Amino acid sequence: MPHDLIALSASFFLLLAYYLYLGWRTHRTPDASIHTHNAKIREQWVGMVMGSGKMDILAIQTLRNSVIAANFMASTAVLLIIGTLNISEKIGQWTLTWQPFGMDAATLGVIWQVKLGLLLLVFAIAFHFFAMAIRYFNHVGYMINLPSDPTKDSRLYRQTCTYLNKAGSYYMFGTRTFFFSLPIILWFFGSTFLVLATIGLIAGLAMLDRTPS
């Protein structure tokens, strides 16, 4: 039990330290963040579509593809929740069989329930993020087809950009939450794997969050 608590605390503080550093770096050099770069691209796309008045089909196809992708990921999250619940009993039996650090069955049972609960919570949060992404993509589908000149009436343009960036952020959060499930899955094999997987995840996120040069 102490080993798992130490590993979980270490994993949490490693992720917290990384995101504090990411926030500081983004605030200091916004162009260094891929998220800032993507937000600017989405705003340029909205300006192009709303300014031309002839991009209705392109806009609908692009948003449809985004909704399909978010819907697929949301469905995957639900399937992962159902699959995890279906094999939860086997996972518990495996945990009791391994008996790490000589712990008794009662202690192992509590640890197994905590790990399983966190894994299910992560998948549920991912589903929420993807569902919110679908919601905002649908809103943008109506807003972007309204007649507007971004150079004269910026209110609708800015609101459309805000909604589209929210949709993109929710999709990113959902994908990022799936990534967070990997250390938790490896946690079932031991506390050391949780810390190692977290370090590997942070290394991967550092490359993803950097604007390509």
Mean pLDDT: 85
* Oligomeric assembly: single chain
Strand content: under 5%
Show unreliable segments.
none
Query: Termini, distance in Å?
Result: 45 Å
What radius of gyration results from the CA coordinates? 21 Å
- The total count of helices amounts to 7
Can you summarize the main beta sheet? none
Strand and helix order? HHHHHHH
Find the structural class using helix and strand composition: mainly alpha
Shape: elongated
Q: How many separate domains make up the residues? A: 1
Helix content: over 70%
Report the count of strand segments: 0
Can you describe this structure?
This protein is mainly alpha-helical and 213 residues long. It has one domain. It is 84% helix and 0% strand. It has seven helices and no strands. Helix 1 packs parallel to helix 7, helix 4 packs antiparallel against helix 5 and helix 6 packs antiparallel against helix 7. The chain is elongated and about 65 Å long.
Question: In a nutshell, what does this entry contain?
Answer:
By secondary structure, the chain is an all-alpha fold.
Write the layout of secondary structure elements.
Blueprint: H1 2-28, H2 34-52, H3 56-86, H4 88-98, H5 105-143, H6 154-187, H7 191-208
Helix pairs in contact: 1-7, 2-6, 3-5, 4-5, 5-6, 6-7
